[in-house]
Amino acid sequence: QVQLVESGGGLVQAGGSLRLSCAASGRTFSTYGMGWFRQAPGKERDFVAGISWSGGGMPNYADSVKGRFTISRDNAKNTVSLQMRSLKPEDTAVYYCAVDPHCAGYVPRVLYWGQGTQVTVSS
């Protein structure tokens, strides 16, 4: 059974940093794209960052987080992480780890989801 388990969420002041981690189990995803999405209250789930499995892991980011967030993966450990810096109140959301096989960044194309972790940024 495939499981994605996120950790690292919490409450932080604006300008602060958090690091989210996602551990996958049940199968290896070394040849799949991985990503992070987020969903704020009353809003749709949106793409945040993705990383391919090939080429050493090519990252891509939503415009709203470029230059502040960094996605990385460790295929040996079957994990993906999201380092978030210079956090803003508008980054407040539940963050979801995802297996996004072709790094589409499109919710219907996600194969597996984690349960989500809350990130709250206070002003």
Explain this structure.
The protein has 123 residues and is mainly beta. Helices cover 0% and strands 48% of the residues. The strands form 2 sheets. Strands 2, 4, 5, 6, 9, 10 and 11 form a 7-stranded mixed beta sheet that branches. Strands 1-3-8-7 form a 4-stranded antiparallel beta sheet, with no helix packed on it.
Produce a short descriptive summary.
The chain is mostly beta strands and 123 residues long. Helix content is 0%, strand content 48%.
Secondary-structure blueprint:
Elements: E1 3-7, E2 10-13, E3 18-25, E4 34-39, E5 46-51, E6 59-61, E7 69-74, E8 79-84, E9 93-99, E10 112-113, E11 117-122
Features:
four-stranded antiparallel β-sheet; 123 residues; 0% helix; mainly beta
Q: Report mean pLDDT, rounded to a whole number.
A: 94
Q: What pattern of helices and strands is seen along the backbone?
A: EEEEEEEEEEE
- Described by the principal axes of the CA atoms, the overall outline is globular
Q: State the end-to-end distance.
A: 40 Å
Percent of sequence in beta strands:
over 45%
- According to DSSP, the number of beta strands is 11
- In this structure, how is the largest beta sheet organized? 7 strands, mixed
| Helical run tally | 0
Low-confidence stretches: none
- Based on CA atoms alone, the radius of gyration comes out at 13 Å
The helix content, as a percent range, equals under 10%
Question: Structural class, from secondary structure content?
Answer: mainly beta
